[in-house]
Amino acid sequence: MRRGLALFLGTVVSQRTSHSLSLNNISRRSFTAFTTSSTGIMSAPSLKKAKTDTSSSTKPLVVAVVGYTGGVGTCLLTAMNKIGLEPYALVRSKTMKIDGGAEVPVDFDSLGQSLLEAAEKQNGTPVIADVTASSHVQDQYSGWVSKGISVATANKGIFAGDEAKYNELLASVASPAKLLHETTVGAGLPVLGTLTALKNSSHEIQKVEGVLSGTLAYVLGAVAGGKMKLSEAVKNAKELGYTEPDPRMDLNGMDVARKAVILARLSGLTGIELSKMEIESLVPKALEDCSVDEFMNGLSAYDDDFAKRVADVEKTAGSRLHYAAKVDVENKIVTVGPMACEASHPFNSAGPDNLIAITTNFYTRPLVVQGAGAGGDVTATGVLADILLCKQN
Ligand SMILES: NC(=O)c1ccc[n+]([C@@H]2O[C@H](COP(=O)([O-])OP(=O)(O)OC[C@H]3O[C@@H](n4cnc5c(N)ncnc54)[C@H](OP(=O)(O)O)[C@@H]3O)[C@@H](O)[C@H]2O)c1
C-alpha cells in the first residue's frame, strides 16, 4: 500500500515473522577485500584488489555478459578488459555471440550449455553476469544456478519480488555455483556482502537504515533549511539529469522500497513483500496519473505543506528530514519514507551519497558504508567484484 504526499504524516510497514532466512546461498563478500577507517566508513572494493585476486587463481572464469550494450554492460566490458578478463559470450536483447562466433538469436539454454562445456574443457568457473533489467533473464537464473553456473547480477527484480519465488531461487543454487547481487543495493558499495558476513559471523543484526536514492537525497538536501521549495528542487533535479524522465519514478519511493526488501531479507526477516508494505510516496495522490508536465506544474501547490514538515523537524537543533529506508529487525518493521533524523544520525553527513548504517549487538554505534550509489562504472566494478568471487569456494 502506498500513501501520497498529501498525507505527509506517516508510517509505516509492519511485517511479522517467526523464523529467519537461511543465508547459505546468498552473496557473501569477504571482509578482507575492504578497508575500514577509524570512523567505521568502508571504502568500495578497489580494482587493484580485484587484479590481485585474478592473478592468484589458476581456475579461469568463463563469463557471459548479458546486457553488454547497456550503460552498465559497456562499463563492465571496459573493467573486464582492464584486468585481462575476456568475455566468453556476449548477449543483448535479441542476439548473442559465443566464443567469438557469429551473432545468432538469443537462446538461453544453448548459452548455458556452451558455458558449461567451455568451463569443463578449461577446468574453469562458468559465470553469467546479468546487467539487464529484464525479468525474462531473471527467469533463467534457477535453471543456470541449478546446473552449477554462477550468476552475478545488478538486476533487482527477483530479489525484491515475490518471497516464495525468491526462496525457490535460493534453494535451487547447486554448489559450487553462487548467486551474487551486491549491486542491487548501493551499486558498487559493499553493503549486502558486509551485512551477510556480519550475520554469518554471529552478529545479531538489529537495524539497517539506508539513504538509498541519490535523487531523493538531492531533493531533501535542497529543501533543508528552507533553501528551496519542493517543486523547485524537483525541477532542478530533473534539469540536472538526476531523475528518471518522469521524476515520479524516483519520488514515489518504490526503488528505495525494493532495496529495503532486499536489505530486510538479507537481515533475516521473512514475510517481507513489497505489495504488503506501506510506502510513503512524495507524489501527491492527485498528481499520480497526469502527464509529466502537469505533474511538474502541479507540484508547487504542495510546497508549503512540505516546507512546514521540513521546518517542524528542523525545530530540534541539527535535526534533518531524509528519505530513507529503515529495517528494524528486532521489531520486524520495515519503513520507507521521509524520516526525521536527530543531529548525531549518520544520515546527516551523507550529502548526495548513498549511506547504509548497520547496527548490531557488537556495532552499537552503527557500521556505516557510504559512497556513490549509482553510476555505470561503480555498478560495473561491483558486478565484476562479484564475478571474481564466483571462483572462490
Ligand atoms: N546505472 C546504475 O547506476 C545502476 C545501479 C545499480 C543497478 N543497476 C541495474 O543495472 C541494470 C542495467 O542498467 P543499465 O542502465 O545499464 O540498462 P540499459 O542501459 O537499459 O541496458 C540494458 C541492457 O540489457 C539488454 N537487454 C534488455 N532486455 C534483454 C533481454 N531480454 N535479454 C538480454 N538482454 C537484454 C539490452 O540489450 P539491447 O541493447 O539489445 O536492448 C541492454 O544491453 C538494471 O537492472 C539496473 O537497475 C544500475
UniProtKB/TrEMBL annotation:
Please give the superkingdom of this protein's source.
Answer: Eukaryota
EC nos: 1.1.1.3
The cross-references to Gene3D superfamilies, in alphabetical order and at most eight, read: Dihydrodipicolinate Reductase, domain 2, NAD(P)-binding Rossmann-like Domain
Q: Active site annotated at which positions?
A: K259 (proton donor)
**InterPro entries membership:** Asp/hSer_DH_NAD-bd, Bifunc_Aspkin/hSer_DH, HDH_cat, HDH_CS, HDH_short, NAD(P)-bd_dom_sf
Q: Which residues form the Homoserine dehydrogenase catalytic domain?
A: 190-388
The record lists the catalysed reaction(s) as: L-homoserine + NADP(+) = L-aspartate 4-semialdehyde + NADPH + H(+)
> What is a biological process (GO) this protein takes part in?
methionine biosynthetic process
Where NADPH is bound, by residue?
Answer: T132, K156
Kindly state which keywords UniProt assigns to this record, in alphabetical order: Amino-acid biosynthesis, Methionine biosynthesis, NADP, Oxidoreductase, Threonine biosynthesis
A GO molecular function for this record? NADP binding
Q: Name one Pfam family in it.
A: Homoserine_dh
Sequence positions that bind L-homoserine: E244
Residues the entry annotates as binding NADP(+): G67, Y68, T69, G70, G71, V72, G73
Q: Has keyword DNA-binding?
A: no
| Cofactor(s) essential for the protein | a metal cation
**Which pathway is this protein assigned to?**
Amino-acid biosynthesis; L-methionine biosynthesis via de novo pathway; L-homoserine from L-aspartate: step 3/3; Amino-acid biosynthesis; L-threonine biosynthesis; L-threonine from L-aspartate: step 3/5
Aspartate/homoserine dehydrogenase NAD-binding domain: from which residue to which, for each copy? 83-171
What's this protein's family per the entry? Belongs to the homoserine dehydrogenase family.
Record's protein name: Homoserine dehydrogenase
